[in-house]
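Subject: for your reference before the review

Hello V.,

The reviewers asked for a structural picture of the protein, and I figured it would be easier to keep everything in one thread rather than splitting it across files. Below is the amino acid sequence we used in the manuscript, unchanged from the supplementary table.
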Amino acid sequence: MSIYISGSLAIDRIMPFPGRFQDHILSDKIHILNVCFLVDGMEERFGGTAGNIAYNLALLGEKPTVLSCVGKDFDRYERRMAELELPMDGVRVIDNDFTASAFITTDQSDNQITAFNPAAMRNPCEYDVSAIDPKDSLAIVSPGNVEDMIELPRKYRAAGIPYIFDPGQQITALSGEQLEDALTGAAILTTNDYELEMVMKATNMDKAQLLEKVGAIVTTLGEHGSSVLRSGEAVEIPICPATPVADPTGAGDAYRAGMLYGLSLGRDLPEACKLGAVCSAYCVERNGTQEHSFTLEEFTSRYEATFGPM
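And here is what came back from the structure prediction:
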């Protein structure tokens, strides 16, 4: 089965500050804030929702197509995707702009100041979905360009392509009407528990009403696992234990990759979500969203140690 992932491709530039922000910010001068933090180096990591999902699927042996926009500085990320044998035909290059990037400064108390430049992500991917075989494909609309998040669900519905809607951090960029339109007809609406509350508030719908629009609701619950809600059925999915828990960033994207992998194999949704739980466990054990790795044999062994025979 072919998998299509729309969303962001981004570069995270992480800069540790060897001090505490609170020692350099005067509370009575916030209205005229002007500070400079001398950081202790910079680490560059590949990220973005679509990039993270695709990375995890590549570890599972899949070659999904990423639908996204990047800029003139994408060469290193492109080489990484080539090493993972990920197709590039869905990646649109904007020659006069930069790839989306986050500049993250973290102090010794783990407080963060982040500046995010969407840059090329302001442009839609313009992928021709008519090239997708609806009988042997699955798509996910993850956070990225807002126009893509509005238009791709419409195109997928018109073409009969099953899709997962994952609005994530772009929920506030969409109106209630746009959210309702995008999720209507989705095979799955997937969020974390806080995001689900935001979707319900924006659309003025409860879970029962959402289930009239989507096939299922999958909600990640952090250390409490995840849940699958379908008409007349609710299933709780436990976590796959992670040792240690180093960084939860990217765990949701890893979970979605495992879920997509399971669905592409024809697994029932709760079973697919268990695969997502295992994938996310690998992610949280390392700092960064694409710093972990595993073989398919290791993944299978860990799944069976947690959930039993696959």
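For the response letter, the relevant points are probably these. The radius of gyration is 20 Å. The chain has a mean pLDDT of 95.

Happy to draft the paragraph if you're swamped.

O.
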